[in-house]
Amino acid sequence: MGQETEFRVVLTAADFEAAVAFYRDALGLEQVADWSDDQGRAILLSAGRATLELFDEAQAAKIDAIEAGRRVSGRVRLAVEVPDSDDTAQRLVEAGAEAVAPAVLTPWGDRNARVLAPDGMQLTLFSPG
Q: Which domain holds residue 95?
């Protein structure tokens, strides 16, 4: 593509304060902008470099089986690199997430855990091996 571009995921939160508390405060994404005004609230959180993984149904089922032991993810799942997937998963559960699957060592050498955010978004927390 020549020049570097930015990829953003936009989540519309029914409970904005809870979403901020979960993604910024508990997960630790850095707030880099606040566009809130009297007509609505919006913040931008930095999650580092962005990529888009495209899976077919067979690959999604395969990865779910490795990471969670069964087919559990929906059409969209966020994957976030964290220093320690076990500790981060525990912190997010304490912040209101639901544990989907404990951390496992994947065939590609990462340690991955799955949680379901309070807003219903499933996250893979991965720590490179």
A: 16-127
Q: How many domains does the chain have?
A: 1
In a domain, residue 35? The reply is yes
Q: Which neighbouring-strand residues pair with 52?
A: none
Give the strand pairing for 77-81 and 122-127.
parallel
Residue 59 belongs to what H/E stretch? helix 57-68
Query: Over the chain (129 residues), what is each successive 10-residue block's mean pLDDT?
Result: 82 96 97 97 95 95 97 95 97 98 96 97 95
The CA-atom distances, in angstroms, between 63 and each of 7, 19, 22, 48, 72 are 23, 26, 25, 23, 10
Q: What is the pLDDT of residue 1?
A: 56
Q: Classify residue 10: in a domain, yes or no.
A: no
pTM for the model stands at 0.90
Q: What is the CATH number of the domain that holds 82?
A: 3.10.180.10
Centroid of chain to Cα 118: 12
Can you say whether the dihedral through the CA atoms of 28, 6, 37, 17 is positive or negative? negative
Across 1-129, the runs of DSSP E, i.e. the strands, are 30-34, 43-46, 77-81, 98-105, 111-116, 122-127
